[in-house]
Write a structure and sequence with these properties.
mainly alpha; 12 helices; about 0% strand; about 210 residues; globular; about 70% helix; disordered C terminus
Length: about 210
């Protein structure tokens, strides 16, 4: 986890979003390759109504077309009788990929909250920090937020908000000169704040 975070912190955006995206993709890929014949998994998959829209939207890009066909056939076969009765099926299970995403998030958020060695703090605070959805989950899951992380995240969000407000203010009529003085990054800060508010991973249940 330590080295996975260090590597993710070198990239643009929320490091946990990077990890979750990579590992969720790998989870789906491995599941299609290794577990599609597992009856227990297939039953759980059917009881979830298949993958959610977010996790199923790229299924046609995976390498194992037969596995995708088998799972999709399960889903439609299970749902079609209800649809013919003009009923909306209700599912008891969570999307398997959403459940895996939540597990990864809990694991890494707990790990971040418990680490405070100098090197860890150094590379984490050099990153873009957690997005708003993942910081919300940090507040929900972690027993205690370390002071260094609290101060770092709050300062990140405050600066982002200030830059966004400046961009809005300088976009008004008559403020063209002020707007022209903004950096190229600040002129498109609306993209940055949009990403920070939504995160860049698939969103699971509760988001």
């Amino acid at each position: 986890n330590y080295f996975a975070l260090e590597k993710a912190c070198e990239k643009e955006g929320c490091p946990l979003c990077t990890i979750v995206s990579e590992r969720t993709y790998r989870y789906i890929d491995n599941m299609l390759f290794e577990h599609v014949s597992d009856r227990g998994f297939r039953a759980k998959y059917r009881n979830a109504g298949g993958f959610c829209s977010a996790h199923s939207k790229n299924l046609d890009s995976f390498r194992d077309g037969l596995a995708v066909a088998i799972l999709c056939s399960d889903t439609l076969s299970n749902e079609l009788p209800e649809l013919k009765k003009k009923k909306v099926p209700r599912y008891k299970e969570l999307c398997p990929a959403c459940a895996e995403t939540e597990r990864i998030e809990r694991e890494f958020l707990g790990f971040i909250a418990e680490n405070a060695d100098d090197h860890f703090v150094s590379f984490f605070t050099a990153s873009d920090g957690l997005c708003v959805p993942h910081y919300r989950k940090m507040l929900r899951y972690a027993k205690k937020i370390p002071l260094w992380l609290k101060e770092f995240q709050e300062e990140k969000f405050e600066k982002l908000l200030e830059r966004t407000r400046n961009m809005i203010e300088f976009s008004a009529w008559g403020r063209q000169e002020d707007y022209a003085k903004l950096s190229e990054k600040d002129k498109i800060v609306w993209k940055e704040i949009a990403r920070a508010l939504r995160g860049t991973t698939f969103q699971g249940a509760g988001e």
